[in-house]
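dumping this here so i dont lose it
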């Protein structure tokens, strides 16, 4: 049997500072399990954990190690709800379904922080809130509509005027802001490893450096091929998000993977950190090329945004990101940047995540549109309910693919160019 190559990690701040975790071994034999989950990011691990809580056993495999994908590379921002307004939800959904989607998305941050508390996951979780910064009257309208349509409780929200934004976010770059107290941040790779540790402690079988290379049906069960062995299972979950490959025909056509880059500074002096983000909030904005940022526990500025114009990660050219950071914070001018990395975000055309039924006893959860830290944890819970035949809060949809999928790269490039032009005109870049 062939061995898989050992995982190479991106040179990220998160990999350099994560809670240590011993590599899990590759699968080297043939096994059987009630459920096989392909992908050990937040989606796959949360599915396994919720199944284990319900007494259902599972095997989780990853072509690399737990947290290697987006889950170990993201900004670590735990954001409430989705970026999109509920009024854009497809007309095919009933009012009851829309209400249920709002409820599920709204509960995602609580689910994550409750898991971290309950299982004592060591991932530097903090919950000071998430801030959205906006400019102009369209930004103001967006905040009003977003809070109304997502039915955010008044106690969760504080609107920050320009002066309050300056004192909370340390920049003059925004006219208005929305502090949503439900949000916060985690060290994402430590969170993924923490979920993996809980799964192992509950008897989940976890294999690393184990790519699924083929899936086929055998009467009433699935057969998952890997280089070192075969997994026979009754139920199957694909949890590969922006790294979805061809193992399930047509699945990757439901999303467009788009590169997102992050740059992190060396630790800032305490006085500067206090000036910039005294409350340690997680921040993002709605500029032409939106950016997201926060400080880590050692005062490093962790600053992210979309990657190259083609949607690919390229050679991690983060020059434009650093420029955007310095335009917002001229105080960063003489600060050294230490880490650059990136990963593939899975976008959907309607900007909402998908819980898909692929076949009888086969599901997938994907398409978080860059907002998956809390939501993929919630998707895992939803998938575990679908697997147990229980009603889900998210609608279960069919895998249909995005029409004209192969033209999407051109669409992404056009959006990138127009976003950057907008930021140049407004002197943001
Ligand atoms: C740079 C960046 C910044 C982001 N910032 C934020 C943020 O601040 N807040 C937020 O909410 N969201 C953010 N996101 C999005 C968030 O990280 C994702 O939505 C989330 O991690 C998705 O988790 P997942 O488990 O579905 O996918 P992943 O973590 O990508 O896991 C998929 C796994 O599947 C495995 N895999 C693929 N194919 C196979 C196969 N054939 N066999 C076996 N294994 C396979 C991969 O190795 C991978 O480990 C960001 C994403 C990126 C890339």
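and the seq i came up w/
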């Amino acid at each position: 049997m062939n061995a898989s190559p050992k995982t190479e990690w991106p040179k990220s701040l998160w990999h350099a500072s994560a809670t240590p975790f011993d590599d899990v071994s590759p699968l080297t034999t043939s096994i059987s399990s009630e459920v096989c989950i392909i992908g050990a990011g937040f989606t796959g691990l949360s599915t396994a954990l919720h199944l284990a809580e319900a007494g259902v056993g599972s095997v989780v495999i990853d072509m690399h190690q737990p947290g290697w994908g987006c889950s170990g590379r993201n900004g670590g921002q735990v954001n409430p709800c989705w970026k999109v307004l509920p009024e854009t939800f497809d007309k095919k959904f009933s009012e009851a379904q829309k209400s249920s989607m709002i409820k599920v998305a709204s509960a995602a941050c609580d689910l994550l922080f409750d898991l971290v508390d309950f299982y004592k996951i060591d991932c530097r979780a903090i919950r000071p809130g998430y801030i959205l910064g906006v400019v102009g009257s369209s930004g103001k309208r967006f905040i009003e509509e977003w809070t109304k349509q997502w039915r955010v409780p008044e106690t969760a929200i504080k609107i920050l005027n320009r002066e309050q934004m300056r004192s909370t976010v340390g920049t003059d770059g925004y006219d208005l802001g929305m502090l949503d107290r439900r949000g916060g941040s985690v060290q994402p790779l430590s969170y993924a490893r923490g979920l993996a540790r809980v799964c192992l402690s509950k008897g989940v079988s976890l294999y690393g450096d184990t790519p699924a290379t083929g899936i086929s049906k055998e009467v009433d069960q699935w057969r998952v091929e890997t280089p070192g062995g075969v997994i026979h299972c009754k139920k199957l979950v694909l949890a590969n998000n922006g790294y979805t490959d061809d193992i399930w025909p047509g699945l990757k056509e439901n999303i467009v993977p788009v590169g997102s880059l992050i740059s992190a500074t060396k630790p800032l002096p305490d006085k500067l950190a206090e000036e910039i983000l005294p409350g340690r909030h997680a921040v993002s904005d709605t500029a032409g090329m939106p950016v997201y940022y926060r400080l880590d526990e050692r005062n490093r500025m962790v600053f992210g945004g979309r990657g190259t114009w083609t949607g690919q990660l390229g050679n991690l050219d983060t020059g434009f990101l650093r420029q955007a950071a310095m335009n917002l914070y001229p105080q960063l001018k003489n600060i050294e940047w230490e880490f650059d990395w990136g990963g593939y975000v899975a976008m959907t055309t309607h900007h909402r995540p998908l819980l898909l039924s692929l076949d009888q006893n086969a599901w997938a959860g994907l398409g978080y549109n860059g907002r998956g830290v809390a939501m993929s944890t919630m998707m895992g819970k939803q998938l575990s309910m679908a697997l147990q035949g229980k009603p889900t809060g998210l609608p279960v949809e069919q895998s249909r693919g995005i029409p004209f999928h192969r033209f999407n790269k051109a669409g992404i490039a056009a959006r990138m160019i127009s976003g950057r032009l907008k930021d140049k005109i407004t002197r943001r870049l």
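The mean pLDDT is 93.
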